[in-house]
Amino acid sequence: MDLEEFRTNTIIEPFRIRSVEAIRFTTMDERKELLAEAGYNPFLLKAKDVLIDLLTDSGTGAMSSGQWAGIISSDESYAGSSSFYRLENAVQEITAFKHVIPTHQGRAAENILFTTIAGKGDVVPSNTHFDTTRAHVEHSGAEARDLVIEEGKQPRNTHPFKGNMDLAKLEQTIEEVGTDRIPVIMITVTNNSGGGQPVSMENIRAVSEIAKKHDIPFFIDACRFAENAWFIKTREDGYEDKEPIEIAREMFSYADGCTMSAKKDGMSNIGGFLAMNSDELAEKCRNLEILTEGFPTYGGMAGYDMEAVAIGLFEALNEDYLRYRIRSIAYLGDKLSRAGVPIVKPTGGHAVYLDAKEILSHVPPLEYPAWSFNNALYRLGGVRGVEIGSVMFGKQPGGSEKPASMELVRLAFPRRVYTQSHVDYLAEVIINAYEQREQLGGYKIASGPDVLRHFSARMLPLGH
Ligand SMILES: *Cc1c(COP(=O)(O)O)cnc(C)c1O
Fold this sequence. Notes:
The chain has 464 residues and is α/β, with parallel strands linked by helices. It folds into two domains: 28-57 and 319-461, Aspartate Aminotransferase, domain 1 (Alpha-Beta Complex); 65-316, Aspartate Aminotransferase, domain 2 (3-Layer(aba) Sandwich), CATH 3.40.640.10. It has 17 helices and 14 strands. The protein has helices at residues 3-9, 28-37, 65-72, 82-95, 106-117, 131-139, 167-177, 201-213, 225-235, 244-253, 279-292, 303-316, 319-338, 356-359, 369-381, 390-393, 420-435; strands at 52-53, 99-103, 123-126, 143-146, 185-188, 218-221, 257-261, 272-276, 351-355, 383-384, 386-388, 408-412, 443-447, 458-461. Strand 3 (123-126), helix 6 and strand 4 (143-146) form a beta-alpha-beta unit. The longest helix is centred in the C-terminal third of the chain and has 20 residues, at 319-338. It binds pyridoxal-5'-phosphate (PLP). Keywords: Lyase, Pyridoxal phosphate. One of its GO terms (biological process) is aromatic amino acid metabolic process.
């Protein structure tokens, strides 16, 4: 095998490490105690007590030497900073949108967009709105409507683009609601709340055609645009020979604008932007931005943050990086599947989702099986994931409880942080917990708020 052949057949981390951060080992007895002190809620653990932290891929990545070099040479001027122009150029080179409005993170871009265009009585359709997107749509008085295809809701269905929008449902919604009550159509790539599943180019094009036909603006929630481009390259006919950047450009060419959290495919620890073609909308958004984020050439970011994002956007599109990124998620998924651990398939872009409803089938949904399995991962191996199930979604507005549609443990991977041996270790911990599943019991909520309770609730294992 020559090196070229080797490169295409094997996948190794496409970087070497020259700055390291120690992680701390604890004993199982210590972890039992730490978990009890944290009210059995991993959100309340201290990060130093976690060995492998897969709580989120947001803002937790490692920056490159190139990004750090950019940070050192940033321009911190209040107005007209060169770092802003570097960010603007980078975003325009990839998206071709005329106006680039920097924000301190993704939700700030959402706040500006929806405050400006949405209001009471409006409906904003999407494949699946991410939590903060939904919250900002609702905060404006509008309704956030999810129209993902049916396959996207079935954990075992192996459709290659489970993040696609249901086009018939979109047409139906437009018909029913009327075009003047739909300020924008959104599509989230990849579909974070739907398992990090990708959206096909064909679907993006079709949504764009429907939007154009009805004269409704079409925006992309672009947080994981590079990961989505990789899935199009590897799963959609006609794209295998295209570079990720060409695919990303085509994706954006169908839209009128985008919102972005640079904490994901911006490869940065903070940052974001709103971009669009409309002069009129951009002027309104900039006026609001001055009120909430800052002057339009920094928008809540330091000059050095803008440098890191400007460089990170291109690093996220690097083929070797994307091949490693998507493969490391699939690698864990394959290992778990071979051991019989039920997971959401196919594995998506940024996380592996364990199907706790099936793993702990003896624990009823309102005794929170995914919560229980996630805590077992911490107790056994110091691993922290997050429950996406009935603790997160079960509380109803009237105060009653209803089981969520799925009980999942999400293991989200920070970018460029963990190596293959970390992933091998993870697989051992998860398989070990799976083998002990019959001894794992449910939980109850001891105390906590009604809204977003998973962040701060104190829990108790049943039988205590
Ligand atoms: C993270 C995320 C957001 C919000 O971005 P923040 O930077 O966390 O404010 C919006 N949409 C999607 C799909 C996300 O993953």
